[in-house]
Amino acid sequence: MSDQLLIIAGLSAGTEDKPILHNIDLTVGAGETHVLMGPNGAGKSTLGHVIMGDPIYQVTDGTITFDGQDVTDLGADKRSLAGIFLSYQAPVEVPGVPLYSFLRTICQMRPELKTTARKFRERVGKIADQLDIDQNFLTRELNVGFSGGEKKKIEMLQLLLLRPKLAILDETDSGLDVDALSIVSRGIEAYRKECDGALLMITHNTRILERLTVDRTHVMVHGNLVADGPASLIDDIDAHGFARFEDALAEKAEA
Amino acid sequence: MATQIITADQTDTLALSHVNVPPAQTWNYLRINDIAFDVPTPHFVGDVYARLPQLFGKLECGIGDEAVSWMEHASGDARYVEVRASEPQTVYVDIDSSKTEVHDTGVLVRAGASATIVTCAHGEQGGTSSSLLRVIAERDARVSIVEIVACGEGQQHLDAIGIEAAEGARIEMRQYALGGAKVALGLCCNLAGASSRFVLDTRYLAVGSDVLDVNHVVRQRGRSTRADIVTTGILADAARKTMRETIDLIHGAKFAEGSEIETVLVTGDDVVNKTLPVILCDEEDVAGNHGASIGAISPEQLDFMRSRGLSEDEAERLFVRAMFDDAVIHANGAETRTAVLNRAETVLGADVARDMAEVLGFDTEEA
Amino acid sequence: MAETTDTTRKKSQVADINRSLYDFKMSEEGYERYADGLSTDIVRAISDKKDEPEWMLELRLKALAAYEEMEMPANWGPSIEMLDLNHISAYVSPKTKQASSWDDVPEDIKNTFERLGIPEAERESLAGVGAQYDSEIVYHNMREEVADQGVIYTTIEDALHDPELEPIVHEYFGTLIPMRDHKFAALHYAVWSGGSFVYVPEGVTLPYPLQSYFRLNAQGAGQFEHTLIIVEPGADLHFIEGCSAPKYYEANLHAGAVELFVKDHAKLRYSTIENWSKNMFNLNTKRATVGADSIMEWVSGSFGSHVSYLYPTTFLQGARSSCEFTGITFAGATQDLDTGCKVILNGPDTTASVDTKSISKDGGINTFRSSIVVGRRADRACATVSCASLMLDDISRSDTIPAMDVRNGSASVGHEATIGRISDDTILYLMSRGCSEGEARTMVVNGFADPVSKELPMEYAIEMNNLIKLEMEGAIG
Question: What is the rounded distance in angstroms from the CA atom of residue A182 to the CA atom of residue A207?
Fold first, then answer.
């Protein structure tokens, strides 16, 4: 199992007053691409945030092991430094902090990325070009007044800059127009190629998956992982929806 | 143009007892209604001054008549600039606080003209410096003002700005208070003409036992005027800050809108943080809004930054650096940038200051 | 009599209300009325009449000296130039003894309170009632089962004559509002008369509110009642205060004082519906100190008076104590109302939440004034202030002057204020559904006031809606 990057075992979690995730088992190998699908409100985003260590959620049972280390009780900052990245559905606005200051600070935290200011500038410039991000964004305040598409691009910029071992992309494709979607897809491809990182895609949109080689597909219903399958499962869901998974879960509950 | 008003042997001081008095005051025991300054008594050499055109004398400057009168006398001389539509101009006012300079500047921006005005007070030690800037923006003028106060320890600085905007004029201003032992910023913008607009972005950082005292006043007289004031500040150690912000929606200012928002990050245990955000409203069909939040970084922001690898302490440090970065980005001129970077060096250390200059690409620049 | 009952009943219907509900005068004939103005003689005469302990007389005389010496702040607040203390009588008393049955209250005074609906409310929903007419309490009564639990609800005068209560009054009276707090606090202590003394013993929860009603009938007079409430640990009280007066053409003055002591794990809700007439100068002082894990709630509706200076103050001294302030102020023609609140957060983990509304119309002036002070020891204290102002025309005025002084790095303080008008779209929408413009506007204003009225007991919420309707009727020609 040592080649597994992320091992989630028997994980249950929720908010203070409401359990959301039930007994989740999930493994992602280094460099693999996984897709997590499920109807709205199934708990997919919650799983992403729990893996990241969002303090809104409490783990009530089970463990999360990342890169050989039990991270269940680690704060989000430590998990980030260990190589987990979560792209936010709605990235937070941070007035008073120019994007440049933010990017420089989060890079300098990491020994593997620490570099001279000049090289840093070159790297940021290159990635910004790759994602069609205007250079003047770099002097603007982080996410303040950015459109939805711009915010997502800035998330991709951070993904490519930080080169994490595992990227969890939470509905990165939602609410994007065609152009923005193709840029974001380009970013995901670049991440797979350049960083050779693992990917956990949370989505209902299968279009963004077309250009990716998917290793494994997981289906979540009502906070339970109900199915696991190869890439072809995506086409099946595309055609038939989640109804049969929901029915199966209901039957199981009755039994 | 600027007069050095204090000499080594001069010890007379004058007490300015009511500086930065807001239009509407409140309980005196809160000690929020004004601040007092001891300033050097002006030396007169002869009694002939080059005065600004008299129309500048009518401008309200936020800091109060007592302080304005002192500045006029202490500067002994005034600089007048007229900007015409045919020739956009950038006006620099460089105040060397170490030399205790006092500047009195008047800028008349003619109808349809564009002007950029940069004032920068900086220095390393001792003394009282001051800048009085008055701006008249005629119809449809565009004025961009950057005001930087990057004074050092032991320095006292008074900065006053009076602005009058005629119909359709647009004033965009960035104000940075980055240092000084005792600093007063007074500002009044009179939106006299219909559809005139004022946008103010204020950033402040007060550390050590710095005292920062601010009085922002916007008089909205014209119909459909708009004022947007956004203030972001950081208070560390035992810094003391008083921020007064007044939006005055005067009778007749139909359809006017004014808003002010202040966000303060407090990192010190001995900080005194006073805020008086006032909306005065004497008209029906207007909108006035105010919001303030005082305390730590918001949980959402903190969670987001954590997910990118920053602890709370590191996030706080980032906010301080970001304030200097932002000032460098908007400093508009090599000398001003150098002043900001020098101050950053004092607060954050030489390594960070150098890194800032390099990341932003100003490391090869000669001031 | 039949007509009176009629009026009382109508009070509970929003429609068909008229000003005569509050604006009726009774003859002062045969009353004891002291000479206008202030002097040592008058102060001694009041004290003599009340047969007070020596310490109280001394306190009065000291306060008088302080009053003569102190000045009004010149740099803020509405003008009180019109208020000439030389033409205000500090003490006016109806010739009657305090009664504990309405049948023993003189007919004209009883009629007054009947019209205001007090006896009816007492029967239906109150644990006890006190009624003050000019300078003296004329009626005081409390349900037996409440008295049996050891709850004391009486006047301060009576408490001073009770050997068991006198030391308690002595211990607390004047300690929360110092006489030198401001000029009118000093005046209050010199000539105070009437008011309430409430003591709720440890662990006692009152099932119904207590209510004091203050009626100032005499022209050119002052009312200076003192309310002292002590809520012992674990106890819970809701106290309601109502005030009204008929309209005169010369100034009346109200300078009451309210001192509230809320001990640990206790709760006090203090509700006020104030409808003084528009010749009243209302310079009232209210203050509460709150112990650990305790709750202080203020609900305040200010409709009347010519000039008001009113800022209930809460000291959150104990850890985890909290304060909630919900208020509405309605300023119409000739009114200049400077109202708000002060909260001082001293204990760790204290919380304060202030939510106020103001409505200005017909040239009325509203000033919301507040201060939130977070002390150095108040770790993790949290305060939010929200105030919304509604302008109903372009000759009125509404100012918002909130101050904050925060001295603890872990505290969080938030503030928001909005000033605006009723949107034309809203009015048009309601009119398109068949409301007249007047009805539509009243509806919107009532909706705006709703967060306050829903904090009040039903009868008072109805009274407040009636007051709003009354004020709104003038607005639409």
Answer: 10
Average pLDDT of every residue of chain A = 91
How many angstroms separate the first and last alpha carbons of chain A?
33
Structure tokens at B227: 């004022």
Helix (H, G, I), strand (E, B) or coil at C393: coil
Euclidean distance between CA atoms C439 and C418, whole angstroms: 24
The number of CA neighbours under 13 Å toward the Cβ of B248 is: 17
Whole-angstrom distance, CA of residue B76 vs CA of residue B53: 15
- ∠ CA(C234), CA(C239), CA(C243), 5° rounding? 165
Distance CA C447, CA C426 (A): 12
Residues 6+ away with beta carbon under 8 Å from C406: B266, B271, B272, B273, B274, B275, B294, B295, C372, C373, C374, C413
| Contact by Cβ (8 Å): B173, B199 | yes
Give the span between the Cα atoms of B240 and C211, in whole angstroms. Answer: 45
Between CA A200 and CA A169 the distance in angstroms is 6
What's the one-letter identity of residue A249? L
The CA-atom distances, in angstroms, between B101 and each of B157, B334, C19, C299, C431 are: 10, 20, 66, 55, 65
Place of tokens 């950038």: B90
* Token digits of residue B333: 């001129």
Of the pLDDT bands very low, low, confident and very high (cuts 50, 70, 90), residue C276 is confident
Judge: A95–B232 Cβ closer than 8 Å, yes or no: yes
Q: What is the largest CA-CA distance in chain B?
A: 66
Other CB atoms closer than 10 Å to residue C284's CB: what's the count? 28
Rounded Cα–Cα distance for residues B144 and B198 (Å)? 10
The three-state secondary structure class of A187 is helix
CATH 3.40.50.300 fits A4-88+164-254, yes or no: yes
Q: Concatenated DSSP letters for C186-222?
A: HHHHHH---EEEEEE-TT-B-SS-EEEEEE--STTBE
Banded pLDDT at B366 (limits 50, 70, 90): low
- Convert the pLDDT of each residue in A22-31 to its tens digit: 999 999 999 9
Distances, alpha carbon B218 to alpha carbons B250, C232, C467, in Å: 10, 49, 36
Do the Cβ atoms of C405 and B268 come within 8 Å?
Answer: no
CB pairs under 8 A between B and C: 138
A220 touches chain B (CB under 8 A): no
Query: If we measure between CA atoms, which residue out of B167, B219, B182, B227 comes closest to residue B200?
Result: B227
Q: What is the pLDDT of residues A112-168, one digit of tens each?
A: 999 999 999 999 999 999 999 998 889 999 999 898 889 999 999 999 999 999 999
Q: Is the pLDDT of residue B327 over 70?
A: yes
Contact C418 B267 (CB under 8 A): no
CA B248, CA B237: separation in Å to the nearest integer? 34
Q: Give the burial string for A145-163 (b: 16+ CB within 10 Å, else e).
A: ebeebbbbbbbbbbbbbbb
Q: Is B302 on the interface with A (CB under 8 A)?
A: no
Do A184 and A174 contact (CB within 8 A), yes or no?
Answer: no
Does A137 contact B at CB distance below 8 Å? no
Are residues A97 and B322, on separate chains, in Cβ contact within 8 Å? yes
With a CB cutoff of 8 Å and minimum separation 6, the contacts of C147 are: none
Provide the 3-class DSSP secondary structure of residue C87. Answer: helix
Contacts of A35 (CB under 8 A, 6+ apart): A200, A201, A203, A209, A214, A216, A217, A218, A231, A234
Helix axes C118-125, C458-475, angle to 10 degrees: 150
